[in-house]
Amino acid sequence: MGKVIFSSWSGKIVDNRKGKTPKASKPADITFPKPPEEEKVLALIGWNGLVVMNPEADILSLTLHYLEQIRKLSCGECSVCMIGIDKLLHIMRQMDEGKGSKADIAEMKAIIKQVSVNSKCGFGQSALFPVLDAIKYCKSDFLALIKGERGLEDKDYSYAVTAPCMDTCPAGLDIPGYIELIRNNKFEESLSLIRENCILPGVVGRVCTRPCEDACVRKDIDEPVSIRLLKRAAADYDLQHGGSSLNGPQKEREERIAIIGAGPAGLAAAYNLRLMGYGVTIFESLPHAGGMAAVGIPEYRLPRDILNHEAGLIKRTGVEIKVNAKVEKLSLKDLKKRGYTAVFVAVGAHRGTKIGAEGEDKGYEGFVDGVEFLRNLNLGKKVQPRKKVIVIGGGNTALDCARSCTRIGFDDVEIIYRRSRVEMPASDEEIEEAEKEGVKFNYLMTPLKILAKDGKATGVECIKMRLGAPDESGRRRPVPIKGSEFTMDTDMIIPAIGQRPELPVIPDTEKIEITKWGTIRADPITYMTDVEGVFAGGDCVTGPAILIDALNTGNRVAKSIDCYLQGRSLTGGISFEGADLKRQMGRGFTVRVPAQDVDFLDVKKRAGSFEEVEGGFGAVEAIREAQRCLRCYRVVVWEKAP
Amino acid sequence: MVTIVIDGHKVKAKESSTILENTQELNIDIPTLCYHMDLSPFGACRLCAVEVKTNGKWQLATSCNTPVEEGMELRTDSALLQESRKLTAEFLYYRYPTTEAVREVARKLGVQTPVEKGEGHDCILCGLCVRTCREIVGVSALTFQDRGLNRNIDEPKIEYDPNTCIGCGACAYVCPTGYVQMEAVDDKRIIWNKVFKMAACNVCGSFFAPEDQLRYISRITGVPFSELTICTSCR
Does B86 reside within a domain? Predict the structure, then answer.
């Protein structure tokens, strides 16, 4: 991107135009949205200001085009936003036709002010500020338009829409959009919109760690909109009303694609490729589709029938899922012989990470890795409850193991974690529910040695820790306290501190690079590995990540494979990194409304049962919750060099 | 009860009542277009805006859907508000210049409009029909059409679902502009272009309600259909 000639982004004025002295910050300090690199941008206008990179830029036409774009997103529910935008468009067109006057500029400013202070939602309150910047800092252009010295023209534009929640969502779901549909009692349409980027809505609506809610503007006012539960509400409503099917392909294509692993990434890629008309076969080593969603998450958080239903819908579009079909050795040559033109490796990360304690490799009875423990449980293998179990780790897998143990009859379930509760990666709700279920938490200690007798684990030797300076993750690093060693007796030990992929699938001859973390190296944009036609993504590339990340990878890989088969290469989109999406120049008075509650299963009923713990919204509560959304859509339009 | 300050006067207000409910009780005139006391407030027309002091600054808030809070300070008639309401009315008049309900409120707020009666019957998206259908009738045959990303719809409008509608006519009754029209021809009622067969009263023989509506009442109350086919005057 070239030099910045003018910028009002984030309210910082940089003006390097003739005769004006630059003030405030240097151009390097401005973080405005970055359009894809291959596009030559002349100027850009968005919710947070105006940026001009090239003297050839036509600010008047750009402003008009921006107004046309935001007009499409103004919902029309309140009178001022949409009509205000209409009036501005009308005034600019009148100016262009020679019917304007200087007074029109004052009127435009008055309209913008009125829309900004009196709009019902965050969209209207913020969308018009950059137009004010255009009028203020490019006034001579507007005067020239009135005099007929300049005209409005149609140039080459691109535009992008986001919101604080959307940009944080790994899959970029149109969150204000699907919430708006629920608000208007259109659950079916809401679900269709969700499915465009998230093919497992009932699953994600239950287990997502919801980074979107952390970014929700409402969080700074009262509490975030329950975005995850609204997604679940759309999926639940559909099931309660008979269950709709997924769209199938419009036309069939000849090429067939092999996918290794029927986890979220594999399923998302499979469905999207199928929708484009490709033949898709998934090879799954386990007896069920779903990957970690099937064997890594206990049923009390994700009932199996929800996952099976959603995977079944994908299957019904014509995706072939071969279960119990472990691919021992991946060979593109073999697959090509069998008619597949591209492969997507999405084998996940189903192997536990070592905890670094003495004796962990000895194969002691009663020492079971967390992912393996959950896999066995989910595959219906009988786990013999013992008196006491110690779970090592502080993430969701550790919590899932501990909470499962309280359900299968362990008397005493304890977690040991090397930092304190504040640093624990598991969500607060998970920790609270686990505490209610009787899980005991021991903070600031780490295992040194697994104690055993006659080949059976009997205890753990631990050392106490204190918190030192923050590490690269921003959390305070735990430091052992010398001489504080002690032992804990137990009948079972479940280490659950991390996962890595199991990769016998890649033979050396294929030259696919494996990183030092045991993950596959793939291009971050195209997802292609070092071997042409072989793509990889999901946990086996990133290491354990959240489900919605995997869905996004699947969606992107499908696009990338489609591009590859047509001889093109997938390119990146606009980046909003650092662009201050929460900033909203206008903000009306927002009434504080607490989020709607859902019921939780009575704690007394949880032992001995894997019944779902968290309830969902009914239609009435969902509509009420949806009305809390402030609709913080942010639009950006840029003019490209011809 | 909470204490609030309206235009400098201390006033007692019911907890969780809205600003508008309190100003109406005090006979303070605040214009409205989308408000109805029996429906949930919507905040669509923006005419009922008042000023609320938040963190020392005056901010606009629509009085119909803003609940009072202890110590809340309000202004209902400042020069800024008069200007803002007039501008909102100008907006509405700009878009719906021939609709009488809009012209009336615009004139009241100082917008110059020609004196002759407006002949238009525009939908001004006040949502009274949508809310009545959902909250009073309980069928949700009317919804707002949605906008948003990738749904490039030129004009927002009210969507009508003929399969859910029972032909009760409440939407036509509540519509302030005459956009929702209801027509009666012999034993038929036409609303939203759908024709409903009217039931005749078992006693006087007059056509008094759509059969679909009676069937709906029968279904939700459990009263047999045959017992409902007597009009209110003969009951």
Answer: no
